[in-house]
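Translate sequence into structure tokens.
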Amino acid sequence: MLCSVPVSEDEYQSHVGGLYDDEDTSESSLAGRFFLWRWYKRSTRGFGHSRPFFLPLAYLALGMLAFHLGFPALRELVELGLLALHKGLAGMGQSLGLAWDSIMLLHQRRAAAEVLTVLWAGAILVLIIIGSFPPREERDELAGYIVPGSGIIARTWAVIGKRLHMLKRVVAFLVAYIRDLDVRKVHAPFTLVLFLILAFAGLAIAFENLLIEIPIRFPIVHGKTGWIPPTAWMTAAVVVCVLGLPLLQGSLLRAHIKSIDARKRKLGGWFSRKLSGILGLAFISAPLAWMALKLLAGKLT
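Result follows.
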């Protein structure tokens, strides 16, 4: 039977390892002697071990595509902020009898906007990547799950039961996540979804530009371009889903653990703990929302 009780790390590894390294698929079995199967197992195992190294690089690549697409909108937002600063300084200078209206003129604002936009985009991207690192003690997604038996029926149920166990843990996590809300935990899902929308659009456009070279360079498909947009957008959707799910998982888990840690350690008062993350709302969420609105309005394609 499938049970859910606390187990030690060694027991967990031995039980879960049996799901993947049983006698039918070990390298000493008949299937394991096939060189392609051995290559597949060793390659996937190696990629799995290097996942913590490659995922941040993948997030960096997605972020660069997202901010490359949204750079004009972000620069426009920076220019609006600098214009508001200029008018505020000019009004303050008039009230004080000082000539502050020459501060932050048009050419100065344009020069500063480029630099500030790059710095702002880079800071947002770094914060998103750092925030996606899951705590080490919470990486075990199958804690308490025991693979049942070794027969064919038991192994089939093990695959299904593993998904059900993970789904049960996801539901329990969502209940705990909502139970202890703060500003960071409210805006984090929307912020990451906006980031992934921008990354998806930027990646799809990049794929289109790449695939358009095929009809140009190969006469056999010359003039046939109708397949390019759906192929590019479907490929981008797959990539963003594969990379976006661990990004969401790690970021939400980190935000949840921070809120729990602040409550247990009683850092500040109740109201200040609920306002935790308000700077991220203004510094990260607002520009991403602005860029996403410009994208949906068709001004970034």
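Note: DSSP finds ten helices and no strands in the chain.
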